[in-house]
Every structure is written in C-alpha cells, then in structure tokens.
Design brief:
alpha+beta; eight-stranded parallel barrel; elongated; Glyco_hydro_b; 1,4-alpha-glucan branching enzyme activity; Glyco_hydro_13_N; carbohydrate metabolism
Length: 738
C-alpha cells in the first residue's frame, strides 16, 4: 500500500537515441560517435547501440558467447539499440542477420581508448619521440581482443573515419573518437589483421567531405598507381648486425673512411622483363658488388613511398613506408641487415623540405593548411610545385623528427642525407621581392626551420650515436656541421657543392686553357676544413641534359677517360669523404634515366673496365691508409706541396695522419709527359708509388716511376724528388724509409 503523497514506482524507460543522433550516425556526419554508439550507461546498467548496414536483426553477446541483449532496429538503414543484461563495461560481440544470411562482428564502440593521458601530454608538448608507435595503424591486442588501432592527427576535421576493404570503404561504419587536447582521432577495430588497404575519410569543419587520405604514419602502402595505406604486422626481422652497429656507435665518423655509392634502387639493375628488383634480389646483387668495389656505404635516393617515378622519390607521400615497388617492408630490413653483415652501411636520402600536393597526401589534410603554411609565400615551393612544411607547428616538427628516429630504430639505417637544406634555411629561396615573408626580425633566415633541423639532429644523435646526418646545403650558411650547443645546425657532414662545381668546371675546359683557371682548384682548400665535408659527384650532375661525368671531361675519347681517371684519383686524395653516383664508377656514357637500368654492357670494353678497376683500387687504398682518411676534416691532415704551378696545371699536396705514413698526391691535368719534374717532399728517403691513374691496367699509357722514387735532402731543410709525371694523371707516393 502506498503512503499518502508517494508516487508510484515506474520502470525506467530505455535511454533512446535522439532522431538527430540517429540521422547523423547513419549519414556518417556525427562528430562524436562514441557518445552514441557502443556501450552507454543507462541507470545502473548498460544499453548498446550500433550501426550495422543491411542487418535486420542484431543480438548482443559477451566475448564468451553469452547472449546479453536483443537490440531493436530504430532505422531501416541499420541503426539498433537495446538494453543489456551485463553489469560491467566490457567489449561485446554482435550477431547480425538478414534474409541473405547471418554474420558476427565485434563492436569497436564497446572498447575504451588506446592512447592515454601521458600520450596527450607529450604530444601536446611536442616532446613525444615514439609517435610512430602511437599514430598510424598498429596490430595490437586490446581488452583481450586482437585488431588494429588507428590514430591520425586532424584537429580541424568535424568527423574522421577509417575506410577500407574491411568495411566496404564506407565512412559511416568506423567513425573515430576525437581526443580534444591533441586533435588526434583514434579507433580500435577488432578482428582485422595485416594486409588490409585503408584510408581516412574526413569531413572538414564546414561539412565538406574531403578526398580520401592515406595515413601519414603508414608503415606500408599499396603499389602505385594505387594509393591506399596497408595494415601490416610489426617488423619481424631478427637482426644480426650487432658488430656493425657497435663499431659505428663507438667511432668518430670524421676519422673513419667513408666512401659512398649513391644508388637509385629502381634503375641500378632491372629484371630481364624490365620490372624492379625486389629487396632480396637487390641484396643478392648490389651488396656483393658494393663490397667488391670497396665502398663503405650505399646511399639510396629516397625509398619511402611516392606516387610518381620521375620524382626519383623526392616527392614522397609516405615518409614511414618503404616503397612497395621493391616488395614488403621486411625485405628492406633484410637488405639493411645483409649490408651490415657485409660491412656496408646504408644511408637514406630524406626529404623534410617539401611534400607533393597529391590529393591523397598531406596537402590540406583536414580541410585546412595543416602540415603546410596557409600563405603560399611560406607554404608553396615554386621550384618543385610542392608544399612546404610548417616548421612553426610542433606537431609537424614532431612528425618529421619522429620519422628520422623511425628509420634509425626500425630499419637500423646508418645515416640520413637531408635533401634541399638550403631551401629550408632561406625564406626567399627561389623567390622574388614581395614573394616571401621576412622572419620576426625582418631577415630572410627561416628561424623555425633552423630550430627544426637542430631538434632533429639532437634527437638522432642523442638516441642513435652511430647514425650520421648529412646536409645537402649549397650556400655559405655557417656551422652546418657543428654541434647545436656551439650554435651549429648539428649535422655530422655537409655536401661540398663548391668542390663539385669548381672541379667539373675546370676539367670541362681544354687543357691548354686550364692554366688560366688554376684557382678553381686551389680555392676549395681555403674552406675545405670549415665544415665536415662529403665530396659529392651525385645524380644531380648526370641528368637533365648535363650528360655524364665522362662526357664533361674535355678532349677526345682517350683524353676524356684519362682525365676522368685522374679526377677520381685527385678526389680520393683530396680531404673529405667521398660520394659517387652509380654508373659513374665504370664511366657510363648515357645520361642517367630512372626509366632504364645502367648500361652494364659497357664493361665488355677495356676503357670502362679500367675505370671500374681504378675506382675499386682507390677505395681500398683510401680505406687502408690513415693518411687518406683519418684527418679528412682537419687542416692538420693537409699540406700544400705545389699550389702555384698554373703554367703546367700541376697540383701536389701531402696527406698525413697519426698512425700512418704520409702520402703525396700529385695531379697533372695536361696531356703532356713531364720528365724530371721536381716535387718538394717533407722527408728524404724512399717514396713508393702506390697509385698511378695512368697504369696500363686502368687503360692508361703505362708511364710512371717504376714503383719507387728517392727524395733527397735540400738546402734549407726538407727534401725533394724528381719524378716522371704521366699525361692527364694523378699519382700517389707513400713514404716508406729514410
């Protein structure tokens, strides 16, 4: 019996979803699907809501298989809701059916988030150094269920969904949860594994549905022309390169021999049918070849995913994914490990300077200028028609810094050669007056980019001291390869573009005119130790109508070959680490094209075999003699012997280092045999001729000094030797005894 004034108890009604919520869910426009779908508190219990297109009935079950609720259809397109009998929050499975059959699915909206508050904190602070383990797509076990966790940064989107072959590319099926503090959207999708193509479908802040976007953090992508990202297992390769990595971790790179073979993976060699080699096929061919040739490192033009072959990889849309052109990502890991076990390091060209504007990429990712600047005077690159990263956003800086760390950690790469650094440093790079915006002090220096490069180098060298970074920087920006704490950019090395330009310009002139351009060779020694330099004869010198290194040499065919041999020996004796683009080691005649393999048939001809043998011998000589490498970056390792003989176009210097005998390098760049040529030397005694680019085995005339010369004491101190200088040749003499 009720007490006077007491209301009768009524059974609580189901907390029904509003018509507006249902309409937004079934139309794929709801900005907060986790507030509607999945398990929702209802009084002291729970109800479930789901959107299962094409279903006519849905029953909820626990993971153990126990039925816990019949869900009622509220909308003909497949929106269901109903009370559950469970009393604690837990994942549920859904049994759906229609006239055509029945199926099971685990409800993704019944799971809690994967990312946590500490992730939010470090991401917001810009100090998270493991974003590649958090963002993107990762196969995990979450709350007892296997599946894939997806996460993407899109702070200005109204709604973000994962679409793929697992949901019929339907953006209504898997809209994601927004983490308000970071602008990151995430969802755990159970019961899917590796090998699924996927993208993100975004609705911009103004309700505009954007082109489908590939995952910026994807670790695997489809083969072009397809552009989807692909779910993949964590790398499973078992590494066996401990000795290699321990050596470089303990080494001072400046005092080690570093001779780099620059390679475009898509055109070094091809299969007989013209298709790309896989990483395993490349390992079987390229690693033994590089080892036999004596190079210490292979440097690949960018191998991260890119849609357009003629970009050579420099317009990348998938910074975290090895290109599908060459097989699966584990194949690249096997290649690096195999190279390491052969004693060869692997360097990657890395492109943080710009990115292409392909609609599936980063451009206007969430409907706004997210990764790039909104103002084209800051955010668009006129040279390459690409977008420029906004280095003023900590999320963009974190994306790029984490990418550098990713390649070092996940793939054990030995170095990153950073492309187009000059374009990053100057706000007016390739721009006319009025086409650029000054920095906060009114200058042309891109201070945000400087801070990014410094942060990247500090992070890489701090986490991976065995890894080196190399700047392609063509200006006189100071301290590129000096430590950040000393005001530098923090790179390990810088490309010496001046060396390449001046020496090639000099050697393109007829020998009779070279005496008038003597300073083009000597000038480089005025700044040779201002940075830690790599001497690059790179891909940029053999494309776009520039010919090949052989074709750049003046004279007839014999003179071209002789000059090229002398030039290589000159370079290997010059202070600085070495880099040579593929094909130039055997004097490729045709200009390089990414669309065809190198002309390996040229090795059927003696002059080309001779150049290849010469490069091989130079590499082994350089590596075996401390004088030629241990003071590459220090002025104490260099001393001019002859700098002023412009009339004869002769240059001579001494290379020296503790622990090794001094070596004299003498280059003669005229086609004249010079007998009784006097060269000053620091020590009296015997000097062995350890190298002669004019040797018969290299294709030369065989002129030389019978393997040994004697240096005699001269008045005033020091010594001198009388030599025979072969035509268009470089010789090296090593002190052996007094």
């Amino acid at each position: 019996m009720l007490k006077p004034g007491a209301a009768a108890e009524t059974k609580p009604e189901l907390d029904r979803a509003t018509d507006g919520d249902i309409e937004a869910i079934v139309n794929g426009t709801h900005g907060d699907p986790f507030a509607v779908l999945g398990l929702q508190q209802s009084g002291k219990g729970f109800l479930a809501r789901c959107f299962v297109p094409h279903a006519e009935t849905v029953t909820a079950h626990t993971l153990e298989g126990k039925a816990c609720g019949q869900l009622l259809r509220r909308n003909d397109t497949g929106f269901f809701e109903g009370k559950l009998t469970i009393r604690k929050r837990q994942p549920i499975r859904l049994h759906a059916s229609n006239a055509g059959g029945e199926w099971w699915l685990t409800d993704p909206y019944s799971f809690g988030p994967v990312l946590g508050p500490m992730d939010d904190y470090f991401i917001s602070e810009g100090s998270h150094l493991r974003l590649f383990d958090k963002l993107g797509a990762h196969l995990i076990s979450h709350e007892g269920v296997d599946g894939v966790h997806f996460a993407v940064w899109a702070p200005n989107a109204h709604r973000v969904s994962v679409v793929g072959d697992f949901n019929d590319w339907d953006g209504r099926r898997h809209p994601m949860r927004l983490r308000q503090d970071t602008g990151i959207w995430e969802i755990f999708i159970p019961d899917i594994g590796p090998g699924h193509p996927y993208k993100f479908e975004l609705i911009g802040a103004r309700g505009v549905r954007l082109p489908l976007k590939a995952d910026p953090y994807a670790i695997r992508s489809e083969l072009r022309p397809a552009t989807a990202s692909v779910t993949d297992r964590p790398q499973a390769h078992e590494w066996a390169d401990e000795k290699h990595r321990a050596h470089w971790k303990a080494a001072d790179h400046r005092r080690e021999p570093i001779s780099i073979y620059e390679v475009h993976a898509g055109s070094w060699q091809l299969r007989d049918d013209g298709t790309f080699l896989s990483w395993d096929e490349m390992a079987d061919r390229l690693i033994p070849y590089t080892a036999e040739m004596g190079f210490t490192h292979i440097e690949f033009l960018p191998i991260s995913e890119h849609p357009y072959d003629p970009s050579w990889g420099y317009q990348t849309t998938g910074l975290y994914a090895p290109s599908a052109r060459f097989g699966d990502p584990d194949g690249f890991a096997r290649f690096v490990d195999g190279a390491h076990r052969a004693g060869i390091g692997v360097i990657l060209d890395w492109v943080p300077a710009h990115f292409p504007v392909d609609e599936h990429g980063l451009a206007h990712f969430d409907g706004t200028a997210l990764y790039e600047h909104a103002d084209p005077r800051q955010g668009f690159h006129p040279d390459w028609n690409t977008a420029i990263y906004n280095f003023g956003r900590r999320e963009v800086v974190s994306f790029l810094v984490n990418n550098a760390l990713f390649w070092a950690e996940k793939y054990h790469v030995d170095g990153l050669r950073v492309d187009a650094v000059a374009s990053m440093l100057y706000l007016d790079y390739s721009r006319k007056e009025g086409e650029w915006i000054p920095n906060e002090f009114g200058g042309r220096e891109n201070l945000e980019s400087v801070r990014f490069l410094q942060k990247m180098n500090v992070a890489v060298y701090g986490a991976h001291p065995g890894v080196m970074t190399i700047a392609e920087e063509s200006t006189s920006w100071p301290k590129v390869s000096q430590p950040v704490h000393e005001g530098g950019l923090g790179f390990g090395f810088k490309w010496n573009m001046g060396f390449m330009h001046d020496t090639l310009e000099y050697l393109s002139k007829e020998p009779v005119h070279r005496k008038h351009h003597h300073n083009e060779i000597t000038f480089g020694l005025l700044y040779a130790f201002s940075e830690n330099f790599v001497l690059p004869l790179s891909h940029d010198e053999v494309v776009h109508g520039k010919g090949t290194l052989l074709s750049k040499m003046a004279g007839d065919d014999w003179q071209k070959f002789a000059t090229l041999r002398a030039y290589y020996a000159f370079m290997w004796g010059y202070p600085g680490k070495k880099l040579l683009f593929m094909g130039q080691e055997f004097a490729q005649r045709a200009e390089w094209s990414e669309a065809r393999a190198l002309d390996w048939n040229l090795l059927d001809f003696a002059p080309h075999r001779g150049v290849k043998q010469l490069v091989r011998d130079l590499n082994y000589l350089y590596r075996s003699r401390p004088a030629l490498h241990a003071r590459d970056c220090e002025p104490e390792g260099f001393e001019w012997l002859i700098a002023d003989d412009a009339a004869n176009s002769v240059f001579a210097w001494l290379r020296k280092a503790p622990g090794g005998a001094p070596i004299a390098v003498i280059s003669s760049f005229t086609p004249v045999l010079r007998d009784n040529y006097r060269v000053p030397l620091p020590l009296a005694g015997k000097w062995r001729e350890i190298f002669n680019s004019d040797a018969l085995e290299y294709g030369g005339s065989g002129k030389g000094n019978s393997g040994m010369v004697a240096a005699r004491q001269v008045d005033g101190g020091g010594a001198a030797a009388t030599l025979l200088l072969p035509p268009l040749a470089t010789i090296m003499l090593e002190f052996v005894a007094d």
